[in-house]
């Protein structure tokens, strides 16, 4: 589960494994706050959403490093302020989490685990208006990483009888290459004379 912490009285949400989600809110900013943050190169709330690691199984132990996957975190960049237009360009307006998961374990009891995670930021230009409210959006998506179907070998079914060697009836010929004679054996003809 990915907890989205409440800020400024906002409601907290938990995102469960495998459930894609989109959450958004509107936050007010006055002209002085927007300009000060933009000129200082500061991003707003969404650029500090996570510590940088995601639990591989959801109930990972803090002491076992193998239970954690590092979050690949994109750069939000620095915003810039335009006094003439009252516009902050490069402002973070959204964060997109992608969780890559794959199956592992015995074929009869496959488990899902997170094998990678990425956080990217969406930026936009925001122009100050008399009643400014900025919409922030957070999305979470779960991407299945195919590991390939398990190779399953099924041997051919055994025959009803064991195979018979080609020379089992030697000196008699068996099969399509056997020669047939209509006159009987040559030894039998000689004795008859």
UniProtKB/TrEMBL annotation:
<dbReference type="InterPro" id="IPR040354">
    <property type="entry name" value="TCTN1-3"/>
</dbReference>
<protein>
    <submittedName>
        <fullName>Uncharacterized protein</fullName>
    </submittedName>
</protein>
């Amino acid at each position: 589960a990915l907890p989205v912490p409440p800020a400024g009285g906002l409601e907290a949400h938990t995102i469960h494994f495998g459930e894609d989600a989109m959450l958004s809110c509107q936050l007010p900013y006055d002209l002085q706050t927007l300009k000060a943050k933009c000129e200082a190169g500061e991003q707003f709330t969404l650029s500090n959403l996570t510590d940088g690691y995601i639990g591989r199984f959801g109930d990972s132990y803090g002491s076992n490093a193998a239970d954690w996957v590092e979050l690949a975190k994109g750069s939000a960049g620095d915003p810039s302020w335009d006094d003439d237009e009252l516009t902050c360009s490069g402002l973070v307006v959204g964060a997109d989490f992608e969780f890559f998961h794959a199956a592992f374990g015995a074929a009869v009891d496959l488990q899902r685990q997170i094998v990678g995670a990425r956080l990217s930021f969406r930026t936009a230009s925001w122009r100050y208006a008399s009643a400014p409210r900025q919409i922030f959006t957070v999305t979470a998506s779960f991407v299945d990483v195919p590991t390939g179907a398990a190779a399953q070998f099924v041997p051919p079914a055994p025959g009803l009888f064991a195979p018979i060697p080609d020379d089992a009836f030697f000196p008699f010929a068996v099969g399509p290459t056997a020669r047939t004679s209509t006159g009987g054996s040559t030894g039998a003809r000689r004795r008859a004379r």
